[in-house]
Amino acid sequence: MSEAPQAIGTVAGPWSLPQAERYGELRSLVALTYYPFVAMMRNVATFAFGFLFPVVFISVFGLIGGGSGGVRLGVATGAASAPVMTALEGMPNIVVVQGSQNELERQLELGKIEGVLDLQGGHVVLQVNEASPQSQAAPLFVQSALDRLNLQVSGVTAPPYTLEVGQVAGRRDRYIDFALPGQVGFALLSTAIFGTVFGLLYLKKALILKRLFATPVHGLTILLGQGLARLIVAVIQAVIILALGVLAFGFQLANGWTTFIAMLGLSCLGLIVFLGFGLVIAGRVNDENGASPITNLVTLPQFLLSGVFFPTDVFPAWVRVIADNLPLSYFNAAMRQIATEGAGVVDVAPYVVGLCVWGVVAYGLAARTFKWV
Amino acid sequence: MSASASEIIRVESLRKHFGSLAAVDGITFSVYRGEIFGILGPNGAGKTTTLEIMETLQKPSSGTVEIDGLDVLRDAWAVKGRIGVQLQSAGFYPELSLVQLLKMFASIYGTAIDPLAVLKRFGLEDKGSAYYDRLSGGQKQRFSLATTLIHRPTIVFLDEPTTGLDPQGRHNLWQLIREVQEEGITVVLTTHYMEEAEQLCDRIAIMERGRIIEMGSTRSLIDDLLATGFRKPVIRQEATLEDVFLSLTGRSLRDE
Q1: Above 0.90 for ipTM, yes or no?
Q2: Which of B83, B92, B114 has its CB closest to that of A211?
């Protein structure tokens, strides 16, 4: 603003040329992506829904997964060095807990251990908690240890009947492996719906949209910039959730980097589809009071029915018909196959197509209902 | 006044209906290059609607508006490039600093600016990293005015620029608006304050219920009134209460 335009009234300066061409729409788009992105990253709601919640959930689920490690067998202190205990300790998935007989039995009743061994010479008495499913495995381990000892005592070094266990797709089935792809979906849907609806309402209410409309920029460019900014936020979210899962909780990416990239790609598609629903709602409602019930109506059933926290096969068939066809269900199903089974684009094509159909529906509705002011 | 070349805004038979309500009911007026034009009127008179139609933010129900020779409906795009708009309130991302906001607008207009120089000119040099929401009323209005000038518009529209400001802030903003005018930029503003119109505006239009009920130069309107024989009950008053207030509190800005 240092050099003042002179004699603007009589001589047309460069600022009074037809200017539409001078304002590159692309440059506007970059600005209207970058600055809203910066604004979003400083926004408390984005942080809470997009980062804090998923990270808290992932941490909790990671801990659930880590706790169910194996079968805990109690034995009285002092008896721990008996041959049968040595044989048991050599087995994977067996944790030997020592303590007084009374203390161990109490722990058994509470379900904190799966079995208590009472060694009476060669005779072993195993007590299990009948209410605990994991306790049912305890006799198998103990029997196996005893069999091994019996063979040793009998001098059999090459038993005629042997078992070899072949490993299929060596994955541990842990809750984190189920939960993490769902959490990516949760974060994306939250960002897309809550972010778009309340974000656009705020832009309207604070007259930010109006102020932008007084500049030579297309409404579509503003909207596209908002969408791209959310896309960047979403990719960062997905990366953080995946990184936390992999680094802190041993989440396994089926094919390493390929899987990682595929998951990010799917996240982008998912977000674009979910943004459509955000636009439909943002176009329909005029204030936060109206937005709250509708956004929750759209998101909450999907959080519950789309396999975010638990698999959809727990539902009766008629519920599954609905549950399995929700947008987030398609996303989660595809995400899970990519993440845990190393599926490729072709394998998850039905889900991707399903997701895209929802996208077409959403943007079709949005185009009809969206109001700028 | 007769030379149409000096007309920069031409509004003809402009109407705007919201349902059965005629917010603007057939108004015709012109604004001349380089002047400060005031639209006065009580709340609900149609000032803001008129302004927003000129700003391309609303579409007229009927009538035409030409800005710098361009029709606001047909050439809305080009019009937006030539005008600067200050809304009645806010209009800025609360999570962006003033420097970021200025850069954003500069990018949209495809122009390069020195954000700190812009802020300095409007007395906001130490507010570069502050957020709009944290500014005082006067600072907000000065910043808002600054954003209207980024792309060197030919016309700026200011909607009630001094509403809610303290006397110091008001006088300061008047000065800034006069400086904008001195750069050759035409200013169209709305106001509730007669003193503001009298001090600042070259010409005014008074609106009431969607119609313009009086228009002319500030001086001539007063002269016309006096010519009808109107005389204000004369109380010889060498100073006003505002003079007392300003002499006690000084003219320097308080909102830093």
Answers
A1: no
A2: B92
